[in-house]
Amino acid sequence: MRAKTVDRIATAVIVCVAGFIILLLAALLGYLLVRGLGHISFDFLTSAPQALKAGGGIGPQLFNSVFLLVLTMIITVPLGIGAGIYMSEYAKDNKLTAFIRLIVEVLSSFPSIVIGLFGLLVIVNTFGFGYSLLSGALALTIFNLPMMVRLTEQSLRSVPKEQKEAGLALGLSRWKTITSVMIPVALPSIVTGSILAAGRVFGEAAALLFTAGMSSPRLDFSNWNPLSPTSPLNPMRPAETLAVHIWKINSEGLAPDAPEIAAGASAVLVIMVLLFNLGARWLGRVVYRKLTASK
Amino acid sequence: MNLPAPNSREDLATKPNKFRKHVMEELRGKAFVYFCVLLLVITIFSIVYFIASRGLTPFLSQGVSIKDMLFGLKWKPEGNPPLFGALPFLFGSFATSILAAVIAAPLGFCAAVFMTEIMPKFGKSALQPAIELLAGIPSVVYGFVGLSVVVPFYRDTFPGQGIGIMAGATVLSIMILPTVTTIATDALRSLPNGLKEGSYALGATRWQTIYRMILPTALPSLLTGVVLGIARAFGEALAVQMVIGNAPHIPHSLFESATTLTSIITQSMGNTTSGSLHNNALWSLALILLLMTFLFVFIVRVLERRVKR
């Protein structure tokens, strides 16, 4: 009888903890949305921030975040998929491969601030890229690459062996087999994973403080020449992203409505991350259906 | 059966060509993937090399002793003579991350047990997405919530200003909860079914089975999750920096302003000139962070070896 009572108590405690976690998430999202949504308006999303007056927006920051994300993914995806293909298809089962695996693991556990500092030292100063979108994108690439590699490797490994063997038996080269037989099968999970990785990039700030910089020069959104310093498309300009902006106004914001701006910007950031999460699942399913003719 | 005539003249003519095409294709592909991997390897070596070369300068040529840095209590980089005692930062980093793990580990284990043993269906449809969303929320947002909810709550409930190690640990514990939970869930799912069934067949209750069979068997994997959580908490910069108060001394209570390695780097790196002693000392702190990462990866590897055995 006693054992049964203990069992009931323990079950109740565990169920309570699980409920608590769900409530915690609901409270967190609820708090952010309730506090933030009231401040979000078209004007808030498009106008430039104000240093000392109330009423500043987050327009340039939002644009910078998206643009930086695109730049980062353009660099990361090919490199990550390439290295992932190596790890799953070309790597022999020897010490060198074990070592590379260790390296990927270490790289993925580096604190993002350390990667930011490396970016400051090498990309910003030694390469002379300065505080710029490109420096930020390269730093985020380092931050994101291990995840892409592991993701690609796992997706390729989950491709049925028969499909690969069939490709090779037809006389295709190994590379051709990978690109036209295996990648299409692995694509849904690669797409889902890359979008989730993109969500992580979107919210990253520590690696960007010292690479993309904490200031945003005045942007002229009618100037689409990527070489002009005021053009939003210029990759060599400093760019403060949304996440960095939230950090900055929380720690040194002087505008009288800084808490509201922080709340609004946090809500925007969280909504974007939610969209990335949902989008990843949805797109993964769509790609899967397209490529496998199953429902 | 009508098989196509083998080796028609056309086929023979194009064969060497096709063969060469395939070889070229293979070579190009191989070159590309080797290039990617080489880049990865170069990147990590240059990270270690560059940070070590800057971080070791204070010890090698600027007369700061390693012992003073690791055990010194005073951080006065602009003083005369400048003092670089990083013990308060080390203490803050360890205190926040270990406390965070102490909070997050039981929660994570309970969540994992809930998802695998008690209500797998509901767990999969409600708790797992919740955990995944928690993992996706950016750290600055956690910092913002910490600053506007957790800190005022502690300020009103406990003596002190609310900022400090406890606030940092609370925020971090929510941030590392997904790491701990995911790894614990995977570990519990991969246990052989016979183990559980045997225990039930002997008449054990569910809790007895969980407590006596499942947790001890999965312990190394559970610890892996906790270590990874501590590693993440140790390296987290902005969320902690926002709620911990940033006073460079060892606090007397959990609700008193303190500092971590990451927050002092975040705060001071932008304000010091490159190459100065102060700046190089900050790189030494970054080097300590780097070495701690190696240590955490090593511990995880050791634990994983025990899982395999």
Q: What spatial form of chain A do the alpha-carbon principal axes imply?
A: globular
Q: What Rg of chain B do the Cα atoms give?
A: 27 Å
Q: Separation of termini of chain A?
A: 50 Å
The total number of structural domains of chain B is: 1
Structural class of chain B: mainly alpha
- Give the CATH H-level superfamily of chain A: MetI-like
Quick one: biggest sheet of chain A?
none
Oligomer: heterodimer
| Pattern of helices and strands of chain A | HHHHHHHHHH
The average pLDDT of chain B is: 85
CATH architecture of chain B: Orthogonal Bundle
Spatial ordering of strands, largest sheet of chain B: 1-2
- The low-confidence parts of chain A are none
Amino- and carboxy-terminal Cα gap of chain B: 57 Å
Short description:
Chain B: The chain crosses the membrane at residues 31-52, 89-114, 126-151, 163-188, 209-231, 281-303. Chain A has 295 residues and is an all-alpha fold. Chain A has helices spanning 2-37, 42-46, 59-90, 95-109, 112-126, 133-157, 161-169, 174-203, 242-252, 258-292.
Overall description:
The complex is a heterodimer of chains A (about 300) and B (about 300). Chain A is globular, with a radius of gyration of 23 Å. Chain A is mainly α. The mean pLDDT of chain A is about 85. Chain A has helices spanning about 1-35, 40-45, 60-90, 95-110, 110-125, 135-155, 160-170, 175-205, 240-250, 260-290. Chain A has a single domain, classed as MetI-like (MetI-like fold). The longest helix of chain A has about 35 residues, at about 1-35. In chain B, a hairpin with a 6-residue loop joins β1 (about 75) and β2. Chain B has helices at about 10-60, 65-70, 85-120, 120-135, 140-155, 165-190, 195-200, 205-235, 240-245, 260-270, 275-309, and strands at about 75, 85. The longest helix of chain B has about 50 residues, at about 10-60. Helix content of chain B is about 75%, strand content about 0%. Chain B has a two-stranded antiparallel sheet. With about 300 residues, chain B is mainly α. The mean pLDDT of chain B is about 85. Chain B contains eleven helices and two strands; from the N terminus they run ααββααααααααα. In chain B, α1 crosses α11 (about 275-309). Chain B has one domain (about 85-309): MetI-like fold. Chains A and B meet through α1, α3, α4, α5 and α6 of A and α1, α3, α4, α5 and α8 of B.
